């Protein structure tokens, strides 16, 4: 039997080149229906009112803890003492809040003040103890960004913490602007720890200091733990080995301080921790002078910071190496370059 071939018909859009056959083409099954995507449960929106209530309750609990901690006999006695000190200093015309611009400066005087403040240490280490004695030191400063981390004792109420944090953040920004070196407040791990503690908290700070600053000398722990009443605050800055470059610092500020002395401590200790390590009775107008004439960083002190972080100076320089360069920079800053 002879088969008669019949042409294949192309069925566009139905099959791609279906083979020719005597049999009728197979029916293409209808496409399977797609299952709808699984429904995701809606994320519940946070209850803002509940969050506010929770925050308010947390703040109330912190304030209650602070009231108890701040009213220990030792802390009350120190708070009353420091309030009296501030009042007496202000009555004597001390703790000035201006920037000292009314006091004339010469490049020679500014350079001499820099040498005394930046190229001397306030204390001498002797037999593991700190002896108050100005001692020549190389130029030291930070190379890495300074990340300031705050730590409060329970005695510091939430409202006061907010004020302290704002003051320190503002001052950190000022230090950066003046020095040209990165300085800022951080909520994470920092390399410049600022502890604000009352009498009881400070006396128990030894283990915490050893954790914050591994290898901190026992003499420094003792100095911070047993801070003399006439010292309102202090700072220690550290290098690795014999390096003149700072890598860590820790400052302690008394929680009992009244407002002006408290802010004065922030200015002095953070600026000293930048590398202006010494106090001098000849530095004026300056916070780096134990006569308490000025409460806050002055124009003179800002110029000292500018000199310290000028790239023409290098960490490790001695007084003999740095002095002529410092005088040159001072002349430029005061506009008397000839």
Automatic annotation (TrEMBL):
<dbReference type="InterPro" id="IPR021323">
    <property type="entry name" value="DUF2927"/>
</dbReference>
<feature type="signal peptide">
    <location>
        <begin position="1"/>
        <end position="26"/>
    </location>
</feature>
<keyword id="KW-0732">Signal</keyword>
<protein>
    <recommendedName>
        <fullName>DUF2927 domain-containing protein</fullName>
    </recommendedName>
</protein>
<feature type="compositionally biased region" description="Pro residues">
    <location>
        <begin position="26"/>
        <end position="41"/>
    </location>
</feature>
<feature type="region of interest" description="Disordered">
    <location>
        <begin position="22"/>
        <end position="80"/>
    </location>
</feature>
<dbReference type="Pfam" id="PF11150">
    <property type="entry name" value="DUF2927"/>
</dbReference>
<feature type="compositionally biased region" description="Basic and acidic residues">
    <location>
        <begin position="42"/>
        <end position="64"/>
    </location>
</feature>
């Amino acid at each position: 039997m002879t088969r008669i071939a019949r042409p294949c018909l192309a069925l566009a859009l139905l099959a791609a080149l279906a083979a020719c056959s005597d049999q009728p083409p197979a029916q293409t099954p209808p496409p399977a229906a797609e299952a709808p995507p699984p429904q995701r449960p809606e994320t519940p929106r946070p209850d803002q009112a509940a969050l506010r209530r929770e925050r308010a309750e947390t703040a109330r609990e912190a304030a209650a803890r602070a009231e108890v901690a701040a009213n220990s006999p030792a802390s009350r006695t120190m708070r009353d003492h420091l309030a009296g000190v501030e009042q007496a200093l202000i009555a004597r015309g001390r703790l000035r809040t201006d920037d000292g611009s009314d006091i004339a400066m010469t490049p020679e005087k500014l350079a001499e003040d820099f040498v005394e403040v930046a190229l001397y240490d306030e204390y001498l280490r002797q037999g593991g103890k700190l002896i108050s004695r100005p001692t020549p030191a190389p130029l030291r400063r930070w190379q890495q960004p300074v990340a300031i981390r705050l730590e409060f004792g329970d005695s510091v109420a939430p409202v006061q913490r907010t004020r302290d944090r704002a003051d320190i953040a503002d001052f950190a920004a000022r230090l950066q602007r003046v020095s040209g070196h990165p300085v800022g407040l951080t909520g994470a791990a920092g390399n410049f720890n600022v502890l604000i503690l009352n009498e009881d908290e400070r006396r128990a700070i030894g283990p915490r200091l050893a954790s914050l600053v591994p290898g901190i000398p026992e003499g420094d722990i003792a100095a911070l733990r047993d801070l003399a009443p006439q010292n309102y605050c202090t700072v220690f800055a550290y290098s690795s080995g014999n390096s003149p470059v700072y890598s860590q610092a820790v400052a302690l500020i008394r929680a009992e301080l009244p407002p002006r002395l408290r802010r004065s401590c922030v200015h002095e200790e953070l600026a000293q921790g930048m590398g202006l390590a010494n106090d001098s009775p000849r530095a004026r107008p300056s916070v780096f002078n134990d006569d308490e004439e000025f409460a806050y960083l002055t124009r003179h002190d800002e110029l000292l910071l500018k000199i310290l972080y000028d790239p023409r100076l290098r960490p490790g320089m001695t007084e003999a190496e740095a002095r002529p360069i410092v005088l040159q920079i001072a002349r430029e800053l005061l506009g008397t370059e000839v």
